[in-house]
Amino acid sequence: MPLTAAPKLMMFLAFRNDAEEALDFYTSLFENSAVHRVVRARAGEAGWPEGVLQHALFTLGGQSFMCTNMPPPGAKGYELASWDAYAFSPATAIYVQCDTAAEFDRYHDALAEKGEVIMPADAYEFSARFAWLTDRFGVSWRLNLAPSRRPRTS
């Protein structure tokens, strides 16, 4: 899916140093995904090893995202923020609405590998099947199997 214009709103993910690994993993996992633009460190650029991903624009399931590797010490921009203090939080999650149990299981198994399950995959009052987890890169995900609402039982 070609990206014709940048949407007004999109998720921006800032990784310590594994943005490219995460980008490759996510775009291989989700259908209708693609990498649209990558900016890499140039030779001699202070603080950065040559060729390292600095910034990328991509889609997952048709949704636009951006990602970056946080600037290392000595890199331009490092002095602008307290990069070492920043980390992903489970309070912010990417929500995925799954159409089938097989799709749910595929995403859950891949994202949970080497990650942490916060809320196990199960039926809950608000969902036929739901899970909340943090993947191996620290990004939080909430997976839901459609339909998202079940009738309440008395």
Q: Hey, roughly how much beta strand do the residues contain?
A: 35-45%
Euclidean distance between termini CA atoms: 46 Å
Share of helix among residues? 10-25%
- The Cα radius of gyration reads 18 Å
Neighbour order of strands in the largest sheet:
1-4-3-2
Low-confidence stretches: none
Largest sheet: 4 strands, mixed
Summing up helix and strand content along with how strands pair, one would put the structural category as: alpha/beta
Shape descriptor reads: elongated
Tell me the number of helical segments per DSSP (H or I, 4 or more residues long): 2
Question: Average pLDDT, to the nearest integer?
Answer: 92
SSE series = EHEEEEHEEE
How many E-type strands? 8
Fold and architecture overview:
With 154 residues, the protein is α/β, with parallel strands linked by helices. 15% of the residues lie in helices and 36% in strands. It has helices at 19-29, 101-112, and strands at 11-15, 34-40, 53-60, 63-69, 93-98, 116-124, 127-134, 140-145. The strands form 2 sheets. A 4-stranded mixed β-sheet has the order 1-4-3-2, covered by helices on one side. A 4-stranded mixed β-sheet has the order 5-8-7-6, with helices on one face. A hairpin with a 2-residue loop joins strand 3 and strand 4. The model has no long low-confidence stretch (mean pLDDT 92).
List the SSEs and their pairings.
Blueprint: E1 11-15, H1 19-29, E2 34-40, E3 53-60, E4 63-69, E5 93-98, H2 101-112, E6 116-124, E7 127-134, E8 140-145
Parallel strand pairs: 1-4, 5-8
Antiparallel strand pairs: 2-3, 3-4, 6-7, 7-8
